[in-house]
Amino acid sequence: VTTDVFTALADPTRRRVLDLLAEHGHGTATTLAAELPVSRPAVIKHLAVLDRAGLVHATTAGRERRYRVDEAQLARAVAQLSGVGAAWDGRLQRIRRIAEHIQRGGTEKDD
Amino acid sequence: MIDTIEREILINAPIERVWEIVTTPEHMGRWFGDAGATRQGDVITMAWEKHGEADLEVVREEPPNVFAYRWDANVKEAGKTLVEFTLNAEDAGTRVRVVESGFASLTATDAVRNELRDGNSEGWKHELGDLERYAATVAV
Questions:
Q1: Measured between alpha carbons, how far is B32 from B22 in angstroms, rounded to an integer?
Q2: pLDDT digits (tens, 9 = 90+) for B46-87
Q3: How far apart are CA B85 and CA B67, in angstroms?
Q4: Which residues of chain B does A103 touch, with a Cβ-Cβ cutoff of 8 Å?
Q5: To probe the interface with B, which of A23, A78, A103, A110 has the most B CB atoms within 10 Å?
Q6: Residues of B with CB below 8 A from A108's CB?
Q7: Which residues pair with A48 in a beta bridge?
Q8: Digit-coded pLDDT (tens) for B82-139
Q9: Taking the CB of the first residue and of the last residue of chain B, which one, N or C, has fewer CB atoms within 10 A?
Q10: CB pairs below 8 Å between A and B: how many?
């Protein structure tokens, strides 16, 4: 998951777009603009940001693009957050190794 | 919604020793970052060879028991979380507890938050297996 994903998620209108797409299963710039306090061109720009982040995917539906949420990409963003606990486990293990190594009489440098 | 992640470990070394390792840039640059750390005032700048730098804003420092800082390195541009270390002497060793909080106020969709809450423990189980293998290869 790249910074793009979190940048995309950081905007409240884009989060609302994702919520609406998740709620309805899919949507177009026109249907989304009808439910949001922004213009259709603005919705198109937000969809483009979400698309670049891989959070939505589009298919052609007549004259419009129909968008759906990429649940796998959303799940990866979630997984990155859930990896925070594992990262702390690793850091605490390293603190313990360094502390106990020094305590046994070693210096930091002689591994 | 998950807002807090808690972890703890028992270390076979006295609390003053552990405090030094947890809080001084010299040691933080090894267990936390991998390319050193420097401190100016209340800001500790951590460096990683592959991930750039991150600033830790120290908000509590009560030797040898409490050390806390805010940082935004977990999720760039989504806001800051608070990390609090609590050290307590236990027998001849030291129990270190770390609590990271504030995830709920990071900017994310409700869908992400719900999945985080529901899928969180499973994610950790997978990650922990990888971590154990990784930790075994890391020399101190």
A1: 9
A2: 888 887 888 999 999 999 999 999 987 555 555 688 999 999
A3: 5
A4: 12-14, 17
A5: A78
A6: 27, 30
A7: none
A8: 999 999 999 889 999 998 887 656 655 555 555 544 543 343 334 333 433 433 333 3
A9: N
A10: 138
- Check A89 against B131: CB less than 8 A apart: yes
Whether pLDDT at A111 is above 70: no
Three-state DSSP class for B3?
A: coil
Distance from CA of B140 to the nearest CA of A (A): 6
Note whether A81 contacts B31, CB cutoff 8 Å: no
Residues of A in contact with B30 (CB under 8 A): 94, 98, 108
The closest alpha carbon to A30, from A71, A56, A78, A63, belongs to: A63
Query: Is B131 within 8 Å of A91 when comparing Cβ atoms?
Result: no
Kindly report the pTM of this predicted structure.
0.58
Q: In A, which residues are within 8 Å of B13 by CB distance?
A: 99-100, 102-103
ipTM value? 0.73
Q: What angle do CA B84, B126, A1 make, to 5 degrees?
A: 75
The vertex-B78 CA angle with A56 and B48, nearest 5°, equals 105
Of the candidates A1, A63, A52, the residue with the CA atom closest to the CA atom of residue A29:
A63
Beta-sheet strands, E only, within B23-92:
37-40, 43-48, 52-62, 66-71, 81-90
With CA atoms as reference, report the closest residue to A20 among A37, A41, A1.
A37
Is the pLDDT at A15 greater than 90? The verdict is: no
Please report residues of B whose CB lies closer than 8 A to that of A84. 5, 74, 100, 103
